[in-house]
Amino acid sequence: MAYVVTQSCCADASCVVACPVNCIHPAPGEPGFGTTEMVYVDATACVGCGACATACPVGAMVPDAALTTKQLPFIDLNAAYYDAFPHADRTPVALVPQQRRLTRTGPFRVAVIGAGPAGLYTADELLKHPEVEGVDVYDRLRTPYGLVRHGVAPDHASTKLVTRLFEAIERQPRFRYFLGAPVGDELTLADLRGTYHAVVYAVGASADRALGIPGEDLAGSVPATALVGWYNGHPDQQDLDVPLAAASNSSGRAVVVGNGNVALDVARILTRPVEVLERTDLAPAALERLRDSGVREVVVLGRRGPAQAAFTVPELIGLAALDDVDVVVDCDPALLDGEDQRSQLLRDLAARTVDPASTRRRIVLSFAVSPVELLGEDGRVTGVRVARNRLVVGDDGAVRAEATDDTFDLDAGLVVRSVGHRGLPVADLPFDERTATVPNHQGRVEPGVYVVGWIKRGPVGFIGTNKTDAQETVETILDDLDAGLPEPAGTLASAAALVRDRLPESTDLGGWQRIDAAEREQGAALGRPRAKITDPDAQRAIAAVPPVVRRRGILRRTVSLTP
């Protein structure tokens, strides 16, 4: 029995270290780690011990004998990697470097700005060093976990299991949260540098890239970053104008521009039956809007061919396995003759017959097309003018799309722009407008100030890519601590006092745990994993209520939100 990776994994390499026979690759330090779509298990070397399944934070490891019919394509996907990269020279076990020790004794204090994966992985790496007396994680929201909470699709519940790892990080005794505590106005970088030896920004890339075409600013044209935040319960997006009902979108169609994983997420959420969405943690208000949605078809526009599609193969396998949505491929059959995995899967999809009498909603994957204008009336989107593209291979071997004069119009009352995230300038830090990142060298902006995650490297990689990225930034911080950073005047106690003075409504880990418990309790009453609380005032009120502790016996206790 061999284990198989069955989804786009988080790529944090926990399974690699756990494997006793080094059969999971690419491993940290090997070519492709952090850039391939997933890690892969070598079935010929796997001994079926299950250590990888225990270590995996997202439940991606499954014994081959337990695979469902829908998961069987992952066997070939794992095997294909080793056909191309045999790893014949691998060591019998994965090599784990010896823990570095600082030459200076400290104690050192570090502030991390941003409670998403990059920030929490950074805190975890720092807390491995006893010379660090405390890591304080700040976030402007009252709920941590960043894009894991507000970006991962609600129907990808297994991916959200990585929060168990984050819960273990935040329970460490030298870890503190300051949530509902934005840095930049009332609390500044200068304030933090007066208390901490190092300040690390892990603020992500919260904006979207523009299409740069006429009509982009019409009502009903929304960025995927906003729409994903809306259905995932981000407080900033709860009033987003999303025309789903027939009265505001008579075409019954939505168009998604771009064909990365986020685009597929959006297409699925807009088309899956509400009975499926009810079993997820999709935001309650968005769920009610989707319950009454009149959208019957979502067209996903990709400017190049199937082989160059931005979505990952695991995501395409998952989409093809849906039995509650019709998936249609719309492109020149000649573009499907490639031997790459995407082309093969899409060729199989294209060969499927769709029952003309089907009442299921439909996702159409279109290739070699680009929007050239969003059409509208009275300030609202009514359609998309689309150009067919000519695919040209450049001297560097890259395939480029060139628009032709062959255009057609698609009626649509909702257009979702999903062509990538973009970072925003950060107060008191330099900013590169071209890359939309903070200029840095291995995470160092200047001694004492650092960046990690998307604001450091740009919006690329997976959840676990942030772990490797955090390790690099932390290594730079340790170098600077050993070299000698200025000693700040403040202490951990004075940091807490400063936050209480400047941001009296901020909260801590206990406040987040009360919100979390309330969401789970409300969700359980509805048969859902959680009912997200999205109103900032409601979050503030719940976070501020001290728990009632009921003791039973000597060492046992329970915590309730109500007397």
TrEMBL record:
Keyword NADP: yes
Reactions mediated catalytically: 2 reduced [2Fe-2S]-[ferredoxin] + NADP(+) + H(+) = 2 oxidized [2Fe-2S]-[ferredoxin] + NADPH
GO molecular function: ferredoxin-NADP+ reductase activity; iron-sulfur cluster binding; metal ion binding
4Fe-4S ferredoxin-type domain: residues covered: 37-66
UniProt keyword terms in alphabetical order: FAD, Flavoprotein, Iron, Iron-sulfur, Metal-binding, NADP, Oxidoreductase
EC number, UniProt record: 1.18.1.2
InterPro entries in the cross-refs: 4Fe4S_Fe-S-bd, 4Fe4S_Fe_S_CS, FAD/NAD-bd_sf, FAD/NAD-binding_dom, Ferredox_Rdtase
CDD domains noted in UniProt: DMSOR_beta-like
Alphabetical list of PROSITE patterns matching this protein: 4FE4S_FER_1 (PS00198), 4FE4S_FER_2 (PS51379)
Cofactor dependence: FAD
Pfam family, one: Pyr_redox_2
Record carries keyword ATP-binding: no
Name of the protein this chain belongs to: ferredoxin--NADP(+) reductase
Source species: Nocardioides aromaticivorans
